[in-house]
Amino acid sequence: MSTDRVLPWLAAAAVAFGGLTLYAGALALFGGPAARAAVGNAVPFVLWFNFLAGFVYILAGAGLLWRQRWAVHAAIFLAAATALVAVAFAMHVLSGGAYELRTVRALAFRLLFWVVLAAVAWSAVKRRIR
Predict the structure, then answer these.
(1) Which residues 6+ apart lie within 8 Å of 17 measured at CB?
(2) For 65-109, what is each residue's pLDDT tens digit?
(3) In degrees rounded to 5, what are phi and psi of residue 97?
(4) Which residues, other chains included, contact 56 with Cβ-Cβ below 8 Å and sequence gap of 6+?
(5) Cα dist. 1→7, 17, 57 in Å?
């Protein structure tokens, strides 16, 4: 399957992923005591990054659906920013900070998703816009 055919699906997934990220992040950050307790040992900077990045997920996904060059750069930015947060998170864990295993999994998934999406977008859009 060509990148031209895969990109719309990944872009739509980015929009949906952004919406879910905003919902979950808002519950964790602004929900009641039960919602905050359910988060467990969440690392605050990771939680805030994910919540704020949810807005950019939606914007980048929409831009990629419309085949906008800036959206490719947004996807690359999201991959790079997620990688930096993952490094900071690893330093937090290695220094003995409390964390949840689901944070490790979620960061790995987010990083993989944005690296793949950025690569597909780069390949698909660079051929169409020169």
Answers:
(1) 57, 61, 113
(2) 999 999 999 999 999 999 999 999 999 999 999 999 999 999 999
(3) -70, 150
(4) 18, 74, 77, 78
(5) 10, 22, 24
Instruction: Give this prediction's pTM.
Output: 0.91
**How far apart, in whole angstroms, are the C-alpha atoms of residue 63 and residue 46?**
25
What one-character DSSP code corresponds to residue 95? Answer: T
If you ran DSSP here, which 8-state letter would residue 42 be given? Answer: -
Residue among 108, 111, 97, 3 nearest 41 (CA): 97
Measured CA to CA, the distance from residue 79 to residue 57 in angstroms comes to: 11
Q: Which tokens belong to 51? A: 């919540």
